[in-house]
Amino acid sequence: MDSLTTFLVAHIGQSDALLMQARQVVGLVAAVLAAMLAGQLGRHGTDRLLARRERADD
Questions:
Q1: What is the pLDDT of residues 1-57, one digit of tens each?
Q2: For residues 18 and 53, what is the distance between their CA atoms, to the nearest angstrom?
Q3: Model pTM above 0.85
Q4: Rounded to whole angstroms, how far apart are CA atoms 37 and 53?
Q5: d(CA 46, CA 20)
Q6: Residue 19: CB atoms within 10 Å
Q7: Would you give the distance in Å from CA 10 to the centre of its chain?
Q8: Which DSSP symbol is given to 58?
Q9: How far apart are CA 16 and CA 35, in angstroms?
Q10: Where are the alpha helices (DSSP H) in the chain?
């Protein structure tokens, strides 16, 4: 019974460590995706603004 308890405690500890590392990776991936989305939205917004100014000049 003690070996089973030791195994479970070790398994939970390893799972916790793995989840902590996974959170860092997920956070990094989310930050990269957010930066890419912001860049795309910024470029799209700038294109629309320039197109609107060109139409106003005509």
A1: 688 888 888 888 888 777 777 888 888 999 999 999 999 888 888 888 888 888 876
A2: 52
A3: no
A4: 24
A5: 39
A6: 10
A7: 29
A8: -
A9: 29
A10: 2-57
